[in-house]
Amino acid sequence: MSDPSNYFSARLPPDPRREKLWRALWDFYFRSLIRKDDVVLDLGAGYCSFINAVKARVRLAVDQWPGFCAHAGTGVEAHVGSVTDLSWLPDASVDFAFASNVFEHIAKEDLTTLLEQLRRKLSPTGRLCLIQPNYRYCYKDYYDDYTHVTVFSHISLQDFLIANDFRILECQPRFLPLTLKSSLPVHPLLIKAYLASPLKPLGKQMLVLAEPFRAGPSRRADPV
């Protein structure tokens, strides 16, 4: 990728709605997945909107954009570097790893390296949560982002994780709209209703929750 600062100014300028969205997502979804005593890792943290909203014992964030450190909230440990190099983390130390709109920017061979490291860095009960564009529903817009290099649908992403020794716990093919540029307003109660609704207008981002393969069948999750 070219200078990350240029990417953020061109594609992802600051937007106060982003913070409102992630605070609501924490309140109405992620709070039930993350315990207060957990160690949480935000991969490709960007503006740190997710990790700043999280309430956990240890909050870690990594991004190759040096400017992201200025957005890390009080108590968030910011590490500048590639998400494909997690050598700075102790093994079995992370309870919840998260990446939003990251995997599509990384070549598959590098993602394989990342997943191999995550299998070591996740704790015995650790999980990986991914949110990203679902190509099946956003193929017309997918390459509007000039840094997208890898394509996943909710099927291929699950299969890729399974092939890299992860077990799928949950899959939501239409979790969120593609971008904040959607016509849907950003309001906590509307976000709560959207998450609970079986109908997802403009839903083009998927969510997949997985864990390193430990025991039991390794298969795709039934979409919800």
Describe this structure in words.
The structure is a single chain. The chain has 224 residues and is α/β, with parallel strands linked by helices. The protein has a single domain (4-212), classed as Vaccinia Virus protein VP39 (Rossmann fold, 3-Layer(aba) Sandwich), CATH 3.40.50. It has seven helices and seven strands; from the N terminus they run ααβαβββαβααβαβ. It has helices at 4-11, 16-28, 49-53, 108-121, 135-138, 154-163, 188-196, and strands spanning 39-43, 58-63, 76-80, 94-100, 122-133, 166-177, 203-212. Strands 3-2-1-4-5-7-6 form a seven-stranded mixed sheet. β1, α3 and β2 (58-63) form a beta-alpha-beta unit. α2 crosses α7. The chain starts with a helix and ends in a 12-residue tail after the last strand. The model has no long low-confidence stretch (mean pLDDT 90).
Q: What would the keywords be for this entry?
A:
224 residues, Rossmann fold, 7-stranded mixed β-sheet, 25% strand, globular
The quaternary state of the protein chains shown equals single chain
Strand content: 25-35%
How many helical elements? 7
Count of DSSP strands: 7
Over all CA atoms, what is the radius of gyration? Answer: 16 Å
What is the annotated CATH architecture? 3-Layer(aba) Sandwich
Largest sheet data = 7 strands, mixed
Which residues form runs of ≥5 with pLDDT under 50? none
End-to-end CA span: 34 Å
